[in-house]
Amino acid sequence: MRVLVVGGAGYIGSHMVKLLCQRGFEVTVLDNLSAGHRDAVKGGRFVLGDLGERDLLDELLRTSRFDGVLHFASHIQVGESVREPAKYYLNNVFKTQYLLDAMVAHRINHFIFSSTAAIFGEPLRTPIDEDHPKNPINPFGRGKWMVEQMLSDYEVAYGLKAVCLRYFNAAGADPDGELGERHEPETHLIPLVLQAAAGRRPNITVFGTDYDTPDGTCVRDYIHVTDLCEVHLLALQRLWDGAGGGAFNLGNGNGFSVREVIDTARAVTGREIPVVYGERRPGDPARLVADSRRARAELGWNPRYADLATIVAHAWRWEGGREG
Ligand code: UDP
């Protein structure tokens, strides 16, 4: 099978490309390298390009006869999306539509979309199931929810079948130690904590200690990047088997507080991790935990690395290995 991975040089995309190549798929990566890294693409054919280059996109889809498209190329910083909504709507919404229109034009009917827990906004209940009301509170979440709705309309009108995968907190790294998280700037908790452990940052700032949670810090549901990639394959297979599109919430169903993450990182690394207690970060809900029963029941998903210590250990092998 031939698969196009848009954003295949990024954090999750690069892990996906490696998995697809290992499983014998014929992979093409399209990435503009605005955030990704060419050396993170460990297999397949690499095409340097942006979804805004509509002629290039058209030519690629016309000539390559892909059986499916996975779309990871999006901006991901909530705070930045509030300051620069135009950047987010252009890249995450409009350019996604260009991709979908090219797929429709060339009759490529199977699409896996990287969505987010941010479409739910402030949770009304927890854990969060797929039918929880969608009330995104920032342009990043709103853009992702717009695309999900667009995809429902495209399925009805054009027969394009899509699975939307709503990531909670993607974390960890390739168990082989070959790939990991390399955002610039890094904003995510686990890599920042590990960079503090490695002495590459002086400390980690905890954003808020007065949340309505057991220890006052925010609770999140961390999911190993390799487990996340496995779901994409299962979702693609489901589409190829003739099922309709759908949406799945992806997490492990266990919430860990910021303090628990730091304590786990201390145990895993054996290093001191200096902590500074700071203000809340605007837009952070107190608790985001996924109800992923639908993914387990309907896709047969069975996470291998659900344990937080394993997630942190794999991330540490990557961060620690980058030390010298
Ligand atoms: N966080 C923190 N300090 C940091 C980065 C993150 O306390 O330097 C907290 C953040 O407020 C949130 C959790 O860690 O409660 C996870 O944040 P991250 O940015 O990794 O993912 P998000 O939940 O925003 O998708």
From TrEMBL:
Pathway assignment: Carbohydrate metabolism; galactose metabolism
Domain NAD-dependent epimerase/dehydratase residues, every copy: 3-251
InterPro entries referenced in this protein's UniProt entry, alphabetically: Epimerase_deHydtase, NAD(P)-bd_dom_sf, UDP_G4E
Keyword Transmembrane: no
Class of this enzyme: isomerase
Keywords, in A-Z order: Carbohydrate metabolism, Isomerase, NAD
E.C. number: 5.1.3.2
A Pfam family: Epimerase
GO terms assigned for molecular function: UDP-glucose 4-epimerase activity
Catalysed transformations (reactions): UDP-alpha-D-glucose = UDP-alpha-D-galactose
Signal peptide residues on this chain, from the entry's feature table: none
PANTHER family with a match to the protein in the record: UDP-ARABINOSE 4-EPIMERASE 1, UDP-GLUCOSE 4-EPIMERASE
Self-association and partners: Homodimer.
Protein name: UDP-glucose 4-epimerase
